[in-house]
Write a structure and sequence with these properties.
Blueprint: H1 15-20, H2 36-40, H3 42-46, H4 52-61, H5 64-68, H6 81-85, H7 92-105, H8 111-123, H9 131-139, H10 150-159
Helix pairs in contact: 8-10
The structure holds iron/sulfur cluster (SF4) (2 copies).
């Protein structure tokens, strides 16, 4: 989201309709760019360039590629403060989920996110299980976590999440 020159020929006027066609993001139509979402966002406080209001304006402007390829749409901490603060009842949290779904389908998913999905398919847990943890569980006679990803794998395969490729 740098301050680059915007060329009107590169804008996609249908992008806002594509996003607001999703019921959970429909209220974005009522956004009047007040900035309350950004003001309350804990991620914006740490990374000032992460700015929900700016993203909302970029969507409306039709900066499709810039929005979908942006790292920032993956920064959200899912706290939902933005939707609680919004005077127009926009859930920017939901808007981000719509953006992430479109971005993932178009090959913009971050590598770490795709790797974590693979990890969940194997073990049912997002992060790799360390050998010390495996041994500790054995010592405590706790069940092995191996194969625990079976149900998650089925769910991920059913939703097509396993076919998502990272941006590399
Ligand atoms: S708080 Fe709501 S109306 Fe204000 S900029 Fe954010 S989304 Fe738009
Ligand atoms: S849900 Fe995401 S965008 Fe909304 S306030 Fe929390 S971190 Fe910011």
């Amino acid at each position: 989201m740098s301050n680059k020159i915007i060329r009107t020929a590169e804008l996609d006027p249908n992008f806002k309709f594509e996003v607001t066609a999703h019921e959970s993001a429909r209220d974005l139509n009522y956004c009047f760019a007040c900035g309350s979402c950004s003001a309350g966002c804990p991620i914006h406080e740490v990374f000032p360039d992460y700015n929900p209001r700016k993203l909302a304006k970029m969507i409306k402007l039709g900066l499709r590629k810039e929005v979908l390829s942006s790292d920032y749409i993956w920064y959200c901490a899912t706290c939902r403060t933005c939707e609680q603060r919004c005077p127009q009842k926009v859930s920017f949290f939901n808007v981000l989920n719509v953006l992430k779904n479109i971005a993932a389908k178009e090959g913009y998913a971050p590598t770490a996110w795709v790797e974590q999905t693979k990890q969940v398919m194997q073990t049912g847990i997002v992060f790799p299980i360390e050998e010390t943890c495996v041994k500790k569980r054995e010592q405590l006679s706790l069940p092995s976590l191996k194969g625990e990803g079976k149900k998650a794998k089925k769910l991920i395969e059913t939703t097509g999440l396993d076919e998502i490729e990272s941006r590399g």
